[in-house]
Structures are given as structure tokens and as C-alpha cells.
TrEMBL record:
Its EC number is 5.4.99.-. InterPro entries: PsdUridine_s_RsuA/RluB/E/F_cat (IPR042092), PsdUridine_synth_cat_dom_sf (IPR020103), PsdUridine_synth_RsuA/RluA (IPR006145), PsdUridine_synth_RsuA/RluB/E/F (IPR000748), PsdUridine_synth_RsuA/RluB_CS (IPR018496), RsuA_PseudoU_synthase (IPR050343), S4_RNA-bd (IPR002942), S4_RNA-bd_sf (IPR036986). Belongs to the pseudouridine synthase RsuA family. One of its GO terms (molecular function) is 16S rRNA pseudouridine(516) synthase activity. Gene3D superfamilies: Alpha-L RNA-binding motif, Pseudouridine synthase I, catalytic domain, N-terminal subdomain, RNA-binding S4 domain. The keyword RNA-binding applies. It holds the Pfam family S4. This is Pseudouridine synthase. CDD domains: PseudoU_synth_RsuA (cd02553), S4 (cd00165). The keyword ATP-binding does not apply. Residues 1-59 form the RNA-binding S4 domain. It is an enzyme of class 5 (isomerase). Keywords: Isomerase, RNA-binding.
């Protein structure tokens, strides 16, 4: 990778800014002053310093967000604020994107990364990665609904959804449930309940694969994935290569 591209990606400024830093002899590679930003470096071997401080190159970022309502799961949007707008500039430098889509009014677990390979493993319909949601439902959810969801609900456009696991937490005029699906059609959970004449009034994703929403993460907060969470993510990437 070019030295100026690496340093720009790590937030040390534009290539124009870096030319000035290089000119001042503030950048070294393996303890030797470098003036040419086009120099190619090996991030696994070369020791790069800016003003005497070692630059640790990071290719990917992996963030867990407890998404708040009111934000869209996109990188840019002409009408609404996006989940990427919520990130500190130090993370935005990596050009991250949300893995999968939560509706504007849906809350909960959202993985944000710039690792396209991992994103594919988690959201591709062929991978059957389970996503679990907690929801409040207007209407009395019944055992009959559990059976219908398990058999595959027919949506309003005629599409038969894949079997889904429905767990009733509380059944009343307003019910509370957990539902696990393996696909992510547009407004899918809401449309599934519409199909049994009930309405989702609150929806929160709490799990995706083995990634569970951190209960200590307040709405709108983010954190980097833990070692155990990273181990799961990397296992998904390796599995595709085996």
C-alpha cells in the first residue's frame, strides 16, 4: 500500500496535508526519513512513525450499535440522519456501513463495519443466519400464530416467508414476543404480523447469529466488538473458505 494512502486512511490528513508533513521530515519508515508519499509499505513488516509515534494500521473496524429510533440504516440519506452520522469522525474515516437494515423506527443490535466479506456472511439469505427480535404486538398472540409462523407466513405480496420461531412472552390485548427469522425482507416482521391481523407497535433486534445486544449499551451508544465476538465473526469468514 502507498504510504500516503495508508496515512490518509488512518486520519493523518489528505494527501496534500501529508506532502507538507513529509517535506518537514516528520515521517519515518524503519527509522529512515521518507519524503516520497508514493513509497509502498508492508503494514505487517514496516515500522511507520509520524513525529516519532508508531502508526498502527487497522484495515477493518467492527462496531456494535444499539440503534435508536429515528435513524435510517444507510451510509447516506437525503431526508433523514443515518446511523453512520452518529459515529465519531475517527470511525467514519474507515467508510463503514451497517450490516443489514433496521427500519427507521426499529431499535437494537446493529453491526457496523467496513468488512464486506463478513457482511455477506451475515446477511446473505443463503447463509440462514438467525436474527432475533423483541416486539410488542397490538393484539392477542396465540399458539395458532406460533404454528402459522413455523409453517411460513404468506406475506401481502404472495411471498411465503421462511419458517420463523415465535415465542410468546406475554399474551393480552398488547402482547410481548420474541421472533427469530433467517431472512430480511422489507418490513418483514411487521408484515408477518399484519398477515395474522395484528400490528407491531415496538420492535427491537436483540441478536444476530451469536452476536447479542450488550445490555449495558444505552440506546444510541456504540462500542467495538469484544475478542469473543470477533472470534465468532472471523469464524464466519473462515467457514466460507473451507
Amino acid at each position: 500500500m502507498r504510504l500516503d494512502k495508508l496515512l490518509s486512511n488512518m486520519g493523518f490528513g489528505s494527501r496534500k496535508d501529508l506532502k507538507a508533513i513529509l517535506k518537514k521530515k516528520h515521517i519515518t519508515v524503519n527509522e529512515k526519513i521518507v519524503k516520497d508519499g508514493s513509497m509502498h509499505v508492508d503494514t505487517e513488516v514496516d515500522i511507520i512513525k509520524v513525529q516519532g509515534e508508531i502508526v498502527t494500521y487497522q484495515k477493518y473496524i467492527y462496531l456494535m450499535m444499539n440503534k435508536p429510533p429515528g435513524y435510517v440504516s444507510a451510509t447516506v440519506d437525503d431526508r433523514y440522519k443515518t446511523v453512520i452520522d452518529m459515529l465519531p469522525s475517527s470511525y467514519q474515516l474507515f467508510n463503514p456501513f451497517p450490516v443489514g437494515r433496521l427500519d427507521k423506527d426499529t431499535e437494537g443490535l446493529l453491526l457496523i463495519t467496513n468488512d464486506g466479506e463478513l457482511a455477506h456472511q451475515l446477511i446473505s439469505p443463503k447463509k440462514d443466519v438467525e436474527k432475533t427480535y423483541y416486539a410488542k404486538i397490538k393484539g392477542h398472540v396465540t399458539e395458532d400464530d406460533i404454528t402459522k409462523f413455523n409453517n411460513g407466513i404468506i406475506l401481502d405480496d404472495g411471498y411465503q416467508a421462511k419458517p420463523a420461531s415465535l415465542k410468546i412472552l406475554h399474551a393480552d390485548i398488547q402482547s410481548e414476543i420474541e421472533i427469530t427469522v433467517t431472512e430480511g425482507k422489507y418490513h418483514q416482521v411487521k408484515r408477518m404480523f399484519d398477515a395474522v391481523n395484528k400490528k407491531v407497535v415496538f420492535l427491537k433486534r436483540i441478536k444476530m447469529g451469536e452476536l447479542e445486544l450488550d445490555c449495558n449499551l444505552s440506546t444510541g451508544d456504540i462500542r467495538e466488538l469484544t475478542k469473543d465476538e470477533m472470534k465468532y465473526c472471523l469464524s464466519k469468514k473462515r467457514a466460507d473458505k473451507d
